[in-house]
Amino acid sequence: MTWSDISDLLWEGFQETAWMVGLSAVLTAVGGLLLGVLLVLTARGGLLAAPPLNALLGLVVNVGRSLPFIILLVAVIPFTRAVVGTTIGTTAAIVPLTIGAIPFYARIVETALREVPADVVSAAIAMGSSRRQIVGKVLLREARPALVAGLTITVIALVGYSAMAGVVGGGGLGDLAIRYGYQRFETEVMIATVVVLVVFVQLIQMLGDVVVRRLSHR
Amino acid sequence: MITVSGLRKTYHARRREVVAVNDVDLEVRPGEIFGVLGRSGAGKSTLLRCVNLLERPDAGTVLVDGVELTALSDRKLRAARRRVGMIHQHFALLSSRTVAGNVAFPLEVAGVPRTQRSARVAELLELVGLSDRAGAYPAQLSGGQKQRVGIARALAAEPTVLLSDEATSALDPDTTRSILDLLLDLNRRLGLTILLITHEMDVVKRVCHAAAVMREGRFTESGPVSELLLTEGSELAAGLFPLPAVQTRQGETAFDVTVSGPAADEPLLSELVRELGVDIRLLGGGVETLAATRAGRLRLAVAGRGEDAAGFLRRRGALVTEVTR
What we know:
The structure holds two protein chains of two kinds. Chain A is built from ten helices and no strands. By secondary structure, chain A is an all-alpha fold. Chain A is 81% helix and 0% strand. Chain B has eleven helices and 14 strands. By secondary structure, chain B is α/β, with parallel strands linked by helices. In chain B, the strands form three sheets. Chain B has a six-stranded mixed β-sheet, sandwiched between helices. A four-stranded antiparallel β-sheet of chain B has the order 2-1-4-5. Chain B has two domains: 2-229, Rossmann fold; 241-323, ACT domain (Alpha-Beta Plaits, 2-Layer Sandwich), CATH 3.30.70.
């Protein structure tokens, strides 16, 4: 296989990985923030204390987190069909990736929001803030560095999960490494894929760190 | 300005009931600085948090500026809280906002338009002497500067009363003094009513017109400082003027003599000596200018005619108690 063949394969694989990781990261950020905020608000003593609902949400998150991704990938196939109309391909892989990552990020969000000092929240209440203002102007805003750092961890985990997307025909760099590097003994492809993945993850981490540094004023 | 009556707050912790505030009545008059003094765990913090309903009391009512907070709906309570400023022991500033952003927060919450906000923020920073640090983040400030930001923020929405939750307890003595001076200044210039809680006797000494001593959820004494000083057995008086052990000689009687107001500046002791021809020894004590009044408390040993000496001092308005070793 020539270098130009390999680079074509890599470029295609990278595009698929970037699409899968990119879209599922956006959906995970939204879903994880929502779920994380709900976990904090409904907790005992929270701003919308509802311990039974909190216990239920906690259970859902734990179930989501306890399934190995490869199992989740096939277990949600019926749901995937209902959402995107197909169960194979890159876009179809986004559904299980998002479902797998939301509980992961939700726990990170929950922890980050709990780190906001209680007296800061009570000061905001004492100043007459509404719940919406407390969530938006105090909790999410104060936790921003931790939320971005957590999202960086989550996106990198998504890169890892996306390697299994080949199982449902999702393609991507991981799939490339398995099909060419492992099954066809094309060692060059394997090595090239690994290098691209390492660089990709490195770039994500660096970008995350830069943003965290700019947001952090502690 | 603040009227609390029959306030009670109980916590449930592991099958045990802890009565944090037990049937407390409190009256803070307009323009007054009222201090609640107590050790940690006495319930003073809970009491303060009940005044702006950060904690919902189990029983009792809270009136601030004629509005019964305990009777308001959530929505109206939020609006009423904006009329009550609060400062905190650990400042409780938003680390993600600049000094100006922190001071603007209560205005934002109240829906004040941006243009008016910035003018008001500049005015407040001027008031607390931090105009040059408007763009700094809290992490870049000293403790005293952080508390000044806290005070500016608390005053942003033009509250009628200020609640202070151990506002100087995390500061060194010099900074404590400058923050207390600022509070006194605001009290005088703006007529701001202040309710503060503290465990530091010095805070009461420097700024409080009236005070209460809190112990196990109850007020053991409460009233204007000048009156408490002249109340027999006052813990506040004993705390403000610590006295040494009684050391009398044969034939001497020891008395604690407390004076408050103009009497503190009269030559009582020399008059006593001249009038009764007795010898007195000063065992300890002091005369000080408190925020509320001039006051003094002395421990004397009088050689002979002890009863007459006590009678003389009492007629001159002093509180006199005989002490035995």
